TrEMBL record, chain A:
Annotated family: Belongs to the succinate dehydrogenase/fumarate reductase iron-sulfur protein family.
Composition bias type Basic and acidic residues, residue spans: 17-30
Keyword annotations: 2Fe-2S, 4Fe-4S, Iron, Iron-sulfur, Metal-binding, Oxidoreductase
Name this protein carries in UniProt: Succinate dehydrogenase/fumarate reductase iron-sulfur subunit
Needed co-factor(s): [2Fe-2S] cluster; [3Fe-4S] cluster; [4Fe-4S] cluster
TrEMBL record, chain B:
InterPro entries: FAD-dep_OxRdtase_2_FAD-bd, FAD/NAD-bd_sf, FRD_SDH_FAD_BS, Fum_R/Succ_DH_flav-like_C_sf, Fum_Rdtase/Succ_DH_flav-like_C, SdhA/FrdA/AprA, Succ_DH/fumarate_Rdtase_cat_sf
Residue stretches making up the FAD-dependent oxidoreductase 2 FAD-binding domain: 5-387
Region (Disordered): 401-423
Domain Fumarate reductase/succinate dehydrogenase flavoprotein-like C-terminal, first and last residues per copy: 480-609
Active site residues according to the UniProt entry: 281 (proton acceptor)
Primary localisation category: membrane
EC number: 1.3.5.1
Pfam families, per the entry: FAD_binding_2 (PF00890), Succ_DH_flav_C (PF02910)
The protein, known as: succinate dehydrogenase
Length: 280, 609
């Protein structure tokens, strides 16, 4: 029994795949030798270093690595190159390389970004890339920060679907309602917004933009029912909730998923006012 | 020592679903995961999740499509379970709040996908996996299930009876990545492995850096066979520089592929005259590489995928995510330019052998999700069939481990007394090198579970201390990168005998170098150097089994293409490739595929496009 196959492949006598790989390796060699020869073809990567356990890293410092520049190289690529070729103790979180896991939010050339989503050529000063851990969080080692506080804030808004009545079978949800909550559901828990927020930096109990956005996601989900909605409003309205926000927009600016955080917080403030009006 | 009834290793879609099910069964359950749950790779899934929900569709049709898609290497009992259980599980996700895309009448949307006879792929935008992962994690939080996050599991605590079928699993060994603390975890009822894919065996993959196949390698060394490892799905549209996936949705909406001559090669060279760009993944991947190999590729590497003609409005409406990916990861504006694409590793059809309850041949050890092979995908997975696998079998494994009686399984596991053995004729010697530690507990009897776990902790402690105390040697990054390169060069879409043998030599070589591996970072705090060194060992074991399977299977089935063997050989090869860890030597044997379903037998037919 024969299955579909490109038979030109079987007939060719030379081994095109091997040839192709050879050509590719030649190109790679050329590229490699040219980068080591000319200094302008490297990126200067300045990385924050700190390890509480190792004597000469207990004092925080910056290390500089010269990483060969490649077309389309991201900050995460550069970090991985530095780690795999120069210093295997260089420590940072990363996993998906495609802006969905949220583990490599870093402070890059002065702002919060995902390392994997940031092309070096797109940075303002792309010759020197300065990489630091997220500000306003405790550093565990090098670029790794303590995320516990962020997770705690997220969990304090009861971030789970919790309908007033247990649904039976498929629930309906209007397209409009799904559209309404769509942006709020895109959060990848990277923590960039929290790190950029002055208020959160000054008030440890402030829920912060990500947690409020999570609350928004459930508050406006029509499937949960009104009773639950009221309870959610109470969480949002608490002393360290929405009212702390001073609409500085820094969270909205840094969010890698383009979630209109400030707008969402404002909308919840309006909801809070409306619901209070009912009682007065 | 930590203690729970059920321990779930890994917190992607499969692990989270298993934990919820075990919890609902009343067990004290904990998740142990090297990444925080929301960082798991399930979050990257784009396209959707299959379930026969609507009138006009049926679980029988879903099962049939899946068997055919598998090129008749799926086991019917597993495939039928998947198709039967998927609808209620998808509705369960909806009930837990998952923000599915909706129809005008408010019902969950469904769309067509490759190889499906009905539009049965439910989805949430082009971020289905993200929403599925977050929805499940939310439910875990709601139930207060304990999560040990950033704990790396290094090994299983299994007794060491000679016959793996008689062994039992009593827990795991893990270390806290943040502090370096090594600890034993005892499981009273069961350990469920849900550690996900193994894309890091290749250097060009859609998978996360964390997908190093840890669970598969751990189970293998503990005595569970690896099944159908040679069946790797290569996705035809990944971005050349990173491997980031460009969803099948682009071709689904009408995106076209062309070569340097500007030809729409799928049609013009007749790779798939009816379906063209929408033929199944293996066919398109082979066509693209043939174009490149024959000199019609861009920079000898990739072809172009063009969606400009779809118009800005349609692209923004349905493929917005793709614009971001092309822009962020290739620096290409998909509205203005075509996107470069090439095939890349995407999914492992094979893995840890389990039955339809998720149970392996070792008592108390389960596996679910991409690390497992309950055998629903066979030789080729249909798009949208991995996510239902996570929730269907995750749920079953969770409740079974927690004590629910699911009846007698129809799929057998473990090596039978007289299996069909294959003597692999290869020029490379295989398997262990030097003082490779045994997988099991090193001589302790099973009576006291605690001692089994303690012994396993001790052994791991020795292994890690040895790595950290060594002052110089080889670094894992070098070995890992060599393996990834040889696998990509030789065990890719096109496979040839000489190249497969060469890879076995390279792996052997890498094993020898691994003996001299050391960890330069001496800190116990967040030591990723150490973690990656342990992972690299797993990559080695997996790469070897995969290549052996590929070399032995001299036929062309599903995603497995052999230059010298251009046909599917049903007489000889309607069987699963099994690799067992036999005293440190990989042993190859076979188990017949089960084509008999509940009420029908799935007769192999030719796949054409
Ligand atoms: C880009 C992409 C798109 C996809 N799109 C689709 C789609 O549209 N439809 C579909 O059906 N399928 C799709 N798939 C396939 C599907 O998403 C995966 O097969 C599935 O998500 C795997 O889930 P999992 O739970 O098995 O593993 P993962 O989600 O990868 O989770 C693995 C977990 O194991 C943990 N872990 C691993 N090793 C260890 C260890 N040693 N110790 C402790 N913890 C460990 C990790 O921390 C993680 O939590 C896609 C895959 C990719 C890569
Ligand atoms: S809201 Fe945006 S910036 Fe904040 S955690 Fe979520 S994805 Fe990150
Ligand atoms: S590595 Fe996952 S978001 Fe960057």
């Amino acid at each position: 029994m024969s299955t579909q196959s490109p038979d030109t492949q079987t007939e060719s006598e030379t081994d095109p795949q091997a040839e192709r790989l050879e050509r590719k390796e030649e190109r790679a060699d050329e590229a490699a030798s040219s980068t080591t020869e000319t200094a302008e073809d490297t990126v200067e990567l300045k990385v924050f270093r700190y390890d509480p356990e190792i004597a000469d890293k207990q004092e925080p410092r910056f290390d500089t690595f010269h990483v060969p520049r490649k077309q389309g190289m991201t900050v995460l690529d550069a970090l991985m190159h530095a780690r795999d070729h120069f210093d295997s103790s260089l420590t940072f979180r990363h996993s998906c390389r495609q802006a969905v896991c949220g583990s490599d939010a870093l402070f890059i050339n002065g702002s919060q970004r995902l390392g994997c989503q940031t092309q070096i050529q797109d940075l303002n000063n792309s010759d020197t890339v300065r990489v630091e851990p997220l500000p306003h969080a405790d550093v565990v080692k090098d670029l790794v920060v303590e995320m516990e506080h962020f997770y705690d804030q997220m969990e304090s808004v009861e971030p789970y679907f919790d309908p007033s009545e247990e649904p039976e079978g498929e629930q309906l949800q209007s397209r409009e309602n799904r559209e309404k909550i769509k942006m709020s559901t895109r959060c990848i828990w990277c923590g960039a917004c929290m790190s950029s927020c002055n208020i959160a930096a000054g008030d440890n109990e402030y829920l912060g933009p990500a947690a409020i956005n999570k609350a928004y996601r459930f508050y406006f989900d029509e499937r949960e029912g009104e009773e639950r909605q009221q309870e959610r409003l109470e969480i949002i309205e608490q002393e360290h909730g929405v009212w702390r926000c001073q609409t500085q927009f820094s969270c909205t600016t840094v969010c890698p998923k383009d979630i209109p955080l400030t707008e969402h917080i404002q909308e919840l403030k309006r909801e809070a006012v409306k619901s209070n009006l009912k009682f007065w | 020592m930590y203690e729970h009834d059920v321990l779930v290793v890994g917190a992607g879609g499969a692990g989270l679903r298993a934990a919820i099910a075990a919890h609902e069964e009343g067990a004290d359950v904990a998740l142990v995961t090297k990444l925080h749950p929301v960082r798991s790779h399930t979050g990257a899934a784009e396209g959707g999740i299959n379930a026969a929900l609507r009138n006009g569709d049926s679980w029988q049709d879903h099962a049939y499509d899946t068997m055919k898609g598998s090129d008749y290497l799926g086991d019917a009992p597993a495939v039928e379970t998947l198709a039967q259980d998927a609808p209620e599980n998808v509705i369960q996700l909806e009930n837990w709040g998952m923000p599915f895309s909706r129809e005008d009448d408010g019902r969950v949307s469904q769309r067509p996908f490759g190889g499906l006879s009905f539009p049965r792929t439910t989805y949430a935008g082009a971020e289905t996996g993200h929403h599925l992962l977050h929805t499940l994690y939310e439910q875990v939080v709601k139930r207060g299930i304990e999560v040990y996050d950033e704990w790396y599991v290094t090994n299983l605590a299994v007794t060491d009876e000679d016959d793996p079928n008689e062994r039992s699993c009593h827990g795991i060994v893990g270390y806290d990545v943040q502090t370096g603390e090594l600890a034993g975890f005892r499981a009273n009822d069961g350990v469920i492995l849900a550690t996900g894919g193994m894309g890091q065996v290749f250097d060009h993959t859609t998978n996360a850096v964390a997908n190093t196949g840890d669970g598969v390698a751990m189970a293998y060394r503990a005595g569970v066979p690896m099944e159908d490892m040679e069946f790797i799905q290569f996705h035809p549209t990944t971005l050349p520089s990173t491997g980031v996936l460009i969803s099948e949705g682009v071709r689904g909406e009408g995106g076209i592929l062309y070569n340097t001559e500007g030809e729409r090669f799928m049609f013009e060279y007749g790779y798939a005259t009816n379906d063209g760009e929408l033929a199944s993944r293996d066919v398109v991947a082979r066509a693209e590489l043939t174009e490149v190999n024959e000199g019609r590729g861009f920079e000898d590497e990739y072809v172009m995928l063009d969606m400009r003609h779809l118009g800005e409005e349609r692209i923004l409406d349905r493929l917005e995510n793709i614009l971001h990916l092309a822009e962020d990861f290739e620096g290409v504006d998909g509205l203005e330019e075509p996107m470069p694409v090439k095939p890349g590793h995407h999914y492992a059809m094979g893995g840890i052998e389990t039955d339809e309850h998720g149970q392996t041949c070792i008592d108390g050890l389960y596996a679910v999700g991409e690390c497992a092979c309950v055998s629903v995908h066979g030789g080729n997975r249909l798009g949208g069939n991995a996510l239902p696998e996570l929730i269907v079998f995750g749920k079953r494994a969770g409740s079974h481990a927690a004590g629910r009686d699911l009846g007698e399984p129809k799929i057998e596991t473990g090596k039978p007394a007289n299996p069909e053995l294959e003597d692999l004729d290869t020029t490379a010697s295989l398997g262990t090198v030097g003082d490779d530690e045994a997988a099991a507990d090193g001589g302790l009897a099973a009576e006291d579970p605690e001692t089994v776990v303690d012994a396993a902790v001790e052994r791991e402690d020795e292994r890690i201390t040895r790595l950290l105390e060594k002052d110089e040697g080889t670094q894992h990054a070098e070995i890992r990168s060599d393996i990834q390169k040889t696998m990509t060069a030789n065990v890719n879409v096109f496979r040839e005998e000489d190249a497969l043998e060469e890879t076995l030599h390279d792996i052997r070589d890498a094993r020898e170098r691994y003996e001299d591996v050391y960890v330069a970072d001496k800190s116990r705090t967040f030591n990723t150097d150490l973690q990656h060194t342990l992972e690299t060992r797993n990559i080695l074991d997996i790469a070897e089994a995969l290549t052996m399977g590929a070399l032995a299977r001299d036929e062309f089935r599903g995603a497995h293409w052999r230059k010298e063997h251009q046909e599917r050989k049903d007489d000889e090869w309607l069987k699963h490739t099994m690799v067992s860890w036999n005293d440190g030597q990989p042993e190859l044997w076979y188990r017949p595929v089960i084509l008999d379903g509940e009420n029908k037998t799935y007769e192999p037919k030719e796949r054409s496009y």
